[in-house]
Amino acid sequence: MQECLYSASSGDSVLFIEDGVYGATSAFKERLRDDLSYFVLQNDAAARGLSACLLTGQCQPVDYSGFVELTEQADSVCSWF
Amino acid sequence: MQECLYSASSGDSVLFIEDGVYGATSAFKERLRDDLSYFVLQNDAAARGLSACLLTGQCQPVDYSGFVELTEQADSVCSWF
Amino acid sequence: MKSCNEMNYSIAIYGGPYSDQASLSALHFARALLKREHRIQRVFFYHDGVYNSSALVTPPQDEINVPTQWQTLASEHGIELVVCIAAAVRRGLLDEKEAKRYSKSSYNLAEGYTLSGLGQLIDASINCDKLITFGA
Amino acid sequence: MKSCNEMNYSIAIYGGPYSDQASLSALHFARALLKREHRIQRVFFYHDGVYNSSALVTPPQDEINVPTQWQTLASEHGIELVVCIAAAVRRGLLDEKEAKRYSKSSYNLAEGYTLSGLGQLIDASINCDKLITFGA
Amino acid sequence: MSELLIIFRKPPIGTSWAREAIDLALVGAAFGQQATLLFMGDGVYQLLSNQQPDQVEQKGTQAMMKALPMYDIDQVFVCEKSLSERGLRANLLDFECQSISQASLQKLLNSHRQVFNF
Amino acid sequence: MSELLIIFRKPPIGTSWAREAIDLALVGAAFGQQATLLFMGDGVYQLLSNQQPDQVEQKGTQAMMKALPMYDIDQVFVCEKSLSERGLRANLLDFECQSISQASLQKLLNSHRQVFNF
């Protein structure tokens, strides 16, 4: 997560999926840069019991269809794991 | 590594193996507690190009036979990965 | 003719079927792609992802069988399931031809999966509109 | 009679043969154990460690074949190679009996390895002097 | 004093670690071994309530966790520091467990003959 | 401007990640794609000199790394921050590579059509 955020350019979108969704919880919100847009895959968050009150408000929830939309819009997609 | 060092009791021995040997480099020496004994598997360190000058002096090098000796001496052995 | 919104995707998977969520996430993503009327040309299995191609995977009855789901999706939508041959052979995934070449008495590559070179992943990155990776 | 220094070890392995160093480290450790005249009763393969038991693993010729090395060591020193059946079956490692049970046309468990329950790992932890785990 | 300590350090969904760790606890109990569970690191996420693993077509470990008392596994500990680092409080958790400090955690590891780390 | 960017983020020994990442770079080059390599995170350890993988009966990636120029792969970058966090300096490294800052690293990712992350 740290390496991803370090490498992203201003204005990039970041989607948290799988265990990455823990990175979208309030506990880690200080790590998030202000100049990126954040999304969280709600299926992965719900699967892990991360309700809206645990997630930071900076992350917009999306479903798999929203995940696809994000890839449609991006010039280039890079996965960090 | 952090969780292992957090859980160890004063006087315990810690052996770094596989990619764990990077934790025995000088760069991370501040993480090491003073009340534990440290060992590093020299085969794993040499395989990764970690010569003596990169490793912290707090860690005593052992080979696989030394690894076995450490397990002989310990009351209980717990692997962290 | 391709509409301006419809895109040609490929997917790369690096994680094994039950040890890692990668293959399952990719499956959900693939279904969402098809629902939005995109095309999936190829799914490429690399690193531990090659374990998805085993015909012998047998999860408990109340659990999803990820390799089988890929087979079904692939045959319904004309998706190529390509398994990196170098990564597969060293991990014990063989088709009939490789089993013969290495004098093994059986093979285990599931139907619908093809062993091929890493060039197929490079090809996907060149010729598809998008290549999405699910890591491990 | 057992000398007071000689101990009875078992080893647990959780990582696959080429994706992870666990199995290789365990092999080196096992050789060192035997050199110091300890006994190894059992090697237990769990999680992705079960991939070590495949008869179809075929590394390049200039690379070590870890599963074969375990077979050799086991037969020379009377070591049990036990593979967790639940972890194995879902990952596609079957012996002849399980292949028949699930109507699979082939099986791939290498000779010298036995599918058995997790109880064998608990048993090792109870009855051996030391159980050493190589994780993933 | 119980014999087995099983440490859960991986998150619950997406991989087989959590299930394989619980399986071991239950089999240990079936073999007549007293088993203690310790959740630390990302393993504490396994205790969160309202997990819906079916959202990603998985089974999760909730049902198995609920079966623990039937196997007489009632010693369940959670690392205080791991919880607080993740912004979690005990009221978010689904299971009765004792939150423990570093000193008690070290004692716990020391007092078990066999520790399984997952 | 090269087409493929391959990022190495895993340490070199013990797993097949490093080898599989290099394989991809070489195959990309064989397909006529200009490939750029970036080492960051624990991937910088792959550049250390004097690796002796035979000490653990492995092959390592040194030989393949030396073959890169033959495939016209000469754009090799290493993340400055990753090096310094690990107490490494460029003189410890076995390979000619350019050490880059965060700004250049971001530009590098932005300027490649396809990024493979290992």
TrEMBL record, chains E, F:
GO MF term list: transferase activity
Assigned protein family: Belongs to the DsrF/TusC family.
Name of the protein in question: Sulfurtransferase TusC
InterPro entries reported for this sequence: DsrEFH-like, Sulphur_relay_DsrE/F-like, Sulphur_relay_TusC/DsrF
Pfam families, per database record: DsrE
Top-level taxon: Bacteria
